[in-house]
Amino acid sequence: MLDKTLSPASFEQRLYEGWEAAGRFGANPASGAAPFTIMIPPPNVTGSLHIGHALTFTIQDILVRWRRMQGRDALWQPGTDHAGIATQMVVERLLAGQGIDRREIGREKFLEHVWEWKAQSGGNITRQLRRLGASLDWPRERFTMDEGLSAAVREVFVTLHEQGLIYRDRRLVNWDPKFQTAISDLEVESREVKGSLWHLRYPVEGEAGRFIVVATTRPETMLGDTAIAVHPEDGRFRDLVGKFAILPLVGRRIPIVADEYSDPEKGSGAVKITPAHDFNDFAVGKRHGLAMPSVLDADGHVMLDEIAADLQAVEGVAEPDFVRSLAGQDRFAARKAIVAELERLELVETIEPHTHAVPHGDRSGVPIEPRLTLQWYCDAATLARPAIEAVETGRTEFVPKHFENIFFSWMRDIQPWCISRQLWWGHQIPAWYAPDGSVFVARTEAEALAQARARLGDGVTLARDPDVLDTWFSSALWPFSTLGWPERTPELEKYYPGDVLVTGWDIIFFWVARMMMMGHHFMGDVPFRTVYIHGLVRDEKGQKMSKSKGNVIDPLELVESYGTDALRFTIASLATPGRDVKLGRKRVEDFRSFGTKLWNAARFCEMNGIAPDPSFDPSKVETPLARWILDAANAAIAEATAALEAYRMDDYAGACYRFVWNSFCDWFLEFAKPALGGEDGAEKAEVKGAAQHVLGTILRLLHPVMPYVTEELWDRFGYGPECSLIGAPWPEAVAVPGAEAARAELDWLVGLISAVRGVRSEMNVPPSVMVPLLLQGASDETLARGGRWTDAIRRLARATEFRALGAGEAPKGVAQVVVAEATVLLPLAEVIDLGAERARLAKERDKAAAEGAKVEQKLANADFVARAKPEVVEENRERLAAARAEMARLEAALARISG
What we know:
It is found in: Cytoplasm. The protein is of the alpha/beta class. The protein is built from 29 helices and 30 strands. Among the domains are: 188-361, Isoleucyl-tRNA Synthetase, domain 2 (Alpha-Beta Complex); 583-725, Isoleucyl-tRNA Synthetase, Domain 1; 743-832; 836-897, Helix Hairpins (Orthogonal Bundle). Helix 3 (84-97) crosses helix 4. It is globular and about 115 Å long.
């Protein structure tokens, strides 16, 4: 007998361990079944399960379990990413706690510590994914630094270099002065900083007393200025274009150029151009052929090496000795000193308080420095063209489709991809340097040495490039490197390209696009046919989760409190394509009751002797109730399947919820109670047969999203003594004779009882009070139906009787509701104060109207809509819709009261 209370903790771990031990998650390349492939976005090896993981992995697991039940050979390849900078930071911090500095122990010893840490702590995220119920093919687990994937990385790097698509160049990068490495845009976060906007006077050459004023937030970089830019149509500076200004402090002549980058509406309208320390300035410098001296070193300290020859004294403007005194100073200390010196020279016109976004390293927490360095680059523009064409022609589709626009906007304006990082942990770049600077790129050091000897002689020695590759480089190869490429393995032949990629919009460019570029280039085909983009998880108010706000939700804590199935079902219910998920504990708590409802329904069935019956034939049922629930199950199967086909997790969960809670539990089992409690006979047998059949259908329908409770009930009921539910077939519609007539009759009955219950609730009629149901305009068919279901109507609608009004009968003080062609009257004058209820409803209607008017006025304010965050605007639109719906409900309730 099932326990009275659902206790997920009593069976979740046991069931998962049983599935994994039995190999229930494994793909089989040798099978003749059609493949279904999802490539996991590999979580960082340093990571722990957060609510975003819970969202994306729940969606993926739903799809995988569903396709597996459909008979597909499903491969869901697990793995983790080595997470270069994140992992190096973790291990450095651990070593620092032991008084060890990585620079003192050297690269080789440090990497030993990293691998040791990975062996001990790197599996945390995979253990947590098991807690979530993720049915990954664990024996196939890969790691981006394992030998197979490392070989693939080397092969790709060497091949692209041979094709001229990987090269070295001196360009600006995001430089992290704390970690001493270039970092990707994804590792940069903008933070609002309260600072100043300095308006500085640059003397115009040859025009004594005339200055051009530039506005800047970074006076410390002015030592590297090589031009001043003004807008070509800005009349204030037209006569200065082509002339020169004198760079304060340094004394260098710098040209005044016309460039549309300068915005006449911002600052002074003139901007200083420092190509080596600003991405926009770098582009201006390229357009105008400007010099690009660097004045800050890797630590963010002032260096004068590249401008030392430019220093010259200009009376009242330039002070070479002062500039020399700045050498080695931190950039922010230098800023203060430079501003003070410019003020002394009376070259500061004004200083404005200025709040602006400053890029920071998301892990180091320090301001990022655009820095001109020699790095390895990949020709992303060439690789992007086939990927763009694949989306344009529909070979890869985005769901929702509008995310294709984000993909196109990035890909059509793609820049060279900086793929080198100044770290120790990662795939070391397979390049070796000879003493004369020659570069030899090869798969192994022996190959590189052979190349060098052929060119430079036998005595040549080589030093390997110390840099490693950007983590996204190896991740870009994930769809085929994990399947054994460059070897032509059976897995590669069967599972590439994959069917669907599930991920967030924030890494469309960093990961999705790069997988498409590499996949097409090396495999000749796209890596996946569909890219399903889900939103981000926010709190219940729509705010981004952050530790500082104290609104971060731990998915494992929710699992402990409410069970895995409750969290998974909540996520699926809220996962509307293209929209962020608003999640709070209350949501999960509410959806836990759905699992409890299913458990209690199954227990009711068990108590009434309902058990699996392989001999039951749905095509031979005769009672309207059995036909109706079997037909409703067919509709639920169709709706759930269509939703999953369309990647509508919310619609899938909604279809299951409505069918289980409403059709099966609230109606079918209630209608079935008299038969189940009555004498044995054909009707009782048929009701029991339909109940066991539909309960089995429900368990299969819900299994992808609620794997634990469904498997436990499946096993306990004995539906599959030789087959776990995870391997059971996805339900299909069955033939139901007389389905249309049964649907019409039972839908009428449900509609009648629901309408009466609604009126009673609106009018605050106590549940203990029973009133007659009187009909006007009822057809003979309606009256006949009422006669067949009198007991159910009395019991569930709390009715003393159900009959047509007699001739001349006109009761006063009634509430009325239309059901089909008939008007149902509930005499309430002697039960409640109808006048008081009318007044209450009118007051509530007016309150809803006032709320709607207030929100409508706010949304009509164009300034509010333009300034407010999108989620705030959306929240107000939802409030307006809710207010209008409430008004309509209350108006209808008022209209139902008469007499």
